[in-house]
Amino acid sequence: MRIVEDRTKKTVVYTADSGYLSAFESFVTQADILITDAYFLEGNEHHPVHFTAKEVGKLASQGNVKTLVLSH
């Protein structure tokens, strides 16, 4: 889900439970806040419904995300 505030153009992106998809790269670009699942540590990459902390960090960095919030 990507929410953009009309006046300020501030953007919040929420991914819920999901594994890494290349489509997320453009979806999170320039988000002010990215809230995403990070259930696993390194070594469990490519899980179908959960990111690893490393995958989320890479996604946020490549997308120039300002604030990253990890959840589960």
Automatic annotation (TrEMBL):
Domain of life: Bacteria
Signal peptide: none
Domain Metallo-beta-lactamase, residue spans: 4-72
Pfam family name, one: Lactamase_B_2
InterPro entries cross-referenced by the UniProt entry: Metallo-B-lactamas (IPR001279), RibonucZ/Hydroxyglut_hydro (IPR036866)
Name assigned to this protein: MBL fold metallo-hydrolase
Organism of derivation: Veillonella nakazawae
